[in-house]
Specification:
heterodimer; A: mainly alpha; 2 strands; B: 290 residues; 12 helices; globular
Chain lengths: 334, 290
Amino acid sequence: MKKNAVPLVLFAALAAFPLVVTSNYFLHLMILFLLWVVIGSSWNVLAGYTGQVSFGHAAFFGVGAYTAGLLSQHLQISPWWGMALGGFVAVLIGLPFGAICFPLRGAYFALATLALGEGMRHIATISESFTGGMMGIMIMPSFVSKIPYYYISLALALLSVLSIRFVIGSKPGYYFVSIREDQDAAESLGIDTTLYKNASLAISSFWTGMAGAFYMNYMGFIDPHVVFSLHEYSVMAILVAIVGGVGTIYGPAVGAFIMVAVQEFFRSGFFGLFDYLGRTTGMPAFASVSEIVRQAHVLGFGVLVVVVILFLPNGIVGDWGKIRRNVFRIQPTR
Amino acid sequence: MDVFLQTVVAGFLKGGLYALIGIGMTLIMGVMGIINLAHGQLMMLAMYVTFLLNTMGVDPYISLFVAMPVLFLVGVAIQKFLLNPLIKVETILPENQVLMTVGIGMVITEIARFLFKSDYKYVKTDYANATFFLGKISFSVALTIAFAIALAFTAAMFWFLLKTDLGRSIRATAQDKDAATLMGVHTGRITVITFGLGAALVAAAGSLLAPVYYIFPDLGGPFTAKAFIITILGGLGSTVGAILGGVTLGMAESLGATYLGMEYEDIVGLAIFIAVLLFLPGGFKRLTKV
């Protein structure tokens, strides 16, 4: 029970969050955070645990989002049905891809996933009659308040993290790790590596697709360049997991929090600090500093990634011991 | 028939530039075993160097000789201070260096956005739209010059790799790093030089492309994608393959654009990519054996 104390307390805090904070702004940030928990964790299953680095998770995200959007546009049913179907459609894209590309290893596989993500974007752009092309899809949001969305995303994050934890803790999870550590050794021990890689891909694409379907419902607008974006989703998913800790259960959640916080920190000009300084001191220089900081949020990510890979190669959760020793000067208790 | 020939010629000329991009990528791939996902971004940087010099009235073909050393140094710095330290670090994912290049690419893009803003920039030359005719086929002057220079660089690269000591050390490192170290090759230094060379080659491609293309910070991503398609087509680490891959991609793109429609230009490249992965894993390297 002691092992679960921190996650349980955090979950209770998250569940109570909308009761305490009613600001739509912070609720929006928390929803984004929870969405990234789902995407980061699912990337982590495939890459962190199974060792198959994907540069194309935007494909699954976008397919999930388009499933929800197209259902409501073509069949006039609620886009929430997309939440039921989005994950499965993403798996339907993922499994044939896995069947074709899993014989590839390492860098080749990573490149193939990159091609998948880019290819899906082009397909969604070109097939205008079906997807609306560059015009994208717009739907009416179901709720005015952000609180229902918050709880739905919380449920999504909780279910995805718990299911992933369950799988990783059971036999297939150990198979995944053995494939990551040494595929040939795993094969020689009688593990059907192709089957388990596909299983890992299925879990990963399912939850990413669900996140995409939720995104459609929450944002109300998608177009190919938003949801299939290489940098916004495929790469961000990687960054979230890397910053938090690849191959750890709660790493992506930590990473998601940090990434959303960093993004907002920059985008809001250090939460309006520079605007405030500019107003109180009356110096126009602060306004331009604030403007520069606002534009620098992607630069902030890039630098963060470079620094994390250099100094904390296993992420914040993975290298927690190292941080404790070197930053807080706490010797490990034996 | 004329349309077909015209398309093939245009694709072929473009292919020369692609080959130059691909050779840089494949050199890095061969020696370090990593994909440089900041390759297009390095090219974008070179294009901005060309643009800056152009505003001072320097011709792009002269600024080529500024952009290449500049990018060589950038490449050396990246390899020395950001990628080489990662080799010693124990991590779960072996692809850490690749992920690092993604971060580097982001940083380069954003710095460019910072300095030059997001709007499209043009390098102004009086020959950008000039053409000449052979029979009924028109040749873009700028692209033809680019093709010739690309050819010259490729030839120089071959001579360098085959005939010089340094070139031999690079090839030795690519074939077997441990054996090369035992033979007295300073492999750490070789990786640094190779990354610099790769960056310089893609810088040449950037400078040559500048007169016929527009320049903006997000240009890096699509060209990184093209670079890896070329390398996969050619076979990872194969220089001859990169040339064949570059020309194939150039041709395929222009044939796709002519006969399927402009919007299919990029998807043709991806389709070829998947087809090669499926039917010719290992790329053209399998056929040419070099």
